[in-house]
Design brief:
InterPro entries: P-loop_NTPase (IPR027417). The chain is an alpha/beta fold. The chain is built from 11 helices and 16 strands.
Length: 366
């Protein structure tokens, strides 16, 4: 079987601010390299090169993407080796558990010329303050969007048959787990499959589920019980001793968008906008909670009110994404300052040393 690459986010710029599940996705690794250094020092490129190298050697790779830069990653994990390389700079500071024994720092800042950066001090601080202001504004727009989304949800919550929803959920849990269990303790990894980025809404649903045999596409509306269903399924899977990947909503991390149990080849996810997909395999199934548990005619009855809510919600989200894009432009300016001060020959030396260190670790545990 050929090697696989899966892509996801460990952090999100959400309606509840910056949320990180980074620790969840690096816990249990035997070796972790934590990259330090400013913007433009080559951290993302280095991690991509490591991932590409080991993928070409036939190893599965996990790329942890950056929610603030569509073209950068925050980490790469080689699960078979139990090795990770991550960006350990703000806002996702990584606290080592066993420094030296598990975690090693890799300082890309050793390759910059401080004499070139010192005269730019005030400009660097000014840009960073502007970036912080953009994120604060983005989060405010997203919070406004969440309050509007609550209005949207209330319409369907008031028109749902909770007994039918419970029946649907219990039927799925029985189908998934009734005669199956594991004799180990189940683990949980909390992640995001997508979210708001400087280039709009992005998701990796199809990548994450492409090797899953049985996929369930949940259709419905906000407030129709999709997240509650997923939470109960995730809890049941963990209770049965299975390893569970829980994918939170990048807009509202208190809600769930997908649960994957790879040991059982099952994925079930919210397949509504902005991450709407439709079955394209004979084994795919739709679970339509609107059709099964919402009072018929609800869409039509509240059409005028819903149109207004949806319009206001989309505007709030769009305004938030604009602020993320503004932050990205400013970050690019910051990167250019550091790039001009970098000695990339030194970066290459650091990268080669890290590659050799991973090789040495690999052969030491073979």
């Amino acid at each position: 079987m050929s090697a696989k690459i899966i892509n996801y986010y460990a952090c999100a710029n959400s309606a509840r601010g910056f949320i990180s599940f980074f620790d969840d996705n690096i816990k249990g690794l035997d070796k972790l390299y934590i990259l330090k250094g400013g913007p433009g020092t080559g951290k993302s490129t280095l991690m991509k090169n490591i991932g590409n190298e080991w993928y070409n050697r036939g190893f599965d790779i996990e790329y942890i993407h950056c929610s603030s830069d569509n073209h950068s990653i925050d980490g790469v994990i080689i699960p078979t080796l139990s090795i990770g390389v991550v960006d350990g700079t703000a806002p996702h500071i990584i606290e080592p558990k066993a420094p030296g024994a598990i975690e090693d720092y890799v300082n890309l800042g050793a390759a910059w010329d401080s004499k070139k950066l010192a005269p730019q001090k005030n400009e660097i601080l000014k840009i960073k303050n502007k970036i912080a202001s953009c994120y604060a504004s983005a989060y405010e727009h997203f919070r406004n969007g969440l309050s509007i989304h609550d209005e949207w949800e209330k319409i369907y919550i008031d028109n749902i048959d909770f007994n039918k929803l419970n029946d649907i959920t219990n039927s799925l849990i029985s189908k998934f787990f009734n005669d199956k269990s594991s004799d180990k303790q189940g683990s949980v990894k909390n992640r995001f499959f997508g979210g708001a980025t400087p280039e709009g809404s992005v998701d990796f649903v199809m990548n994450l589920t492409e090797c899953i045999e049985k996929r369930y596409f949940i259709k419905g509306r906000p407030g129709s019980g999709k997240s509650t269903m997923l939470k109960k399924i995730a809890q049941a899977a963990e209770g049965k001793g299975f390893d569970v990947e829980i994918y939170h909503c990048g807009f509202d991390p208190n809600s769930l968008d997908m649960v994957i149990v790879r040991e059982l080849d099952i994925a079930i996810f919210d397949s509504t906008p902005p991450h709407e997909y439709f079955p394209d395999r004979s084994s795919d199934e739709i679970v339509d909670v609107y059709a099964l548990a919402i009072n018929p005619g609800t869409d039509e009855k509240y059409k005028e009110e819903l149109d207004s809510i949806i319009s206001r919600y989309k505007l709030a989200v769009s305004n938030g994404i604009t602020q993320l894009a503004n932050a990205k432009k400013l970050h690019d300016e910051l990167e250019s300052i550091y790039i001009d001060a970098m000695d990339f020959n030194k970066v290459d030396k650091i990268a080669n040393d890290l590659m050799e260190s991973i090789d040495d670790y690999f052969f030491s545990v073979e």
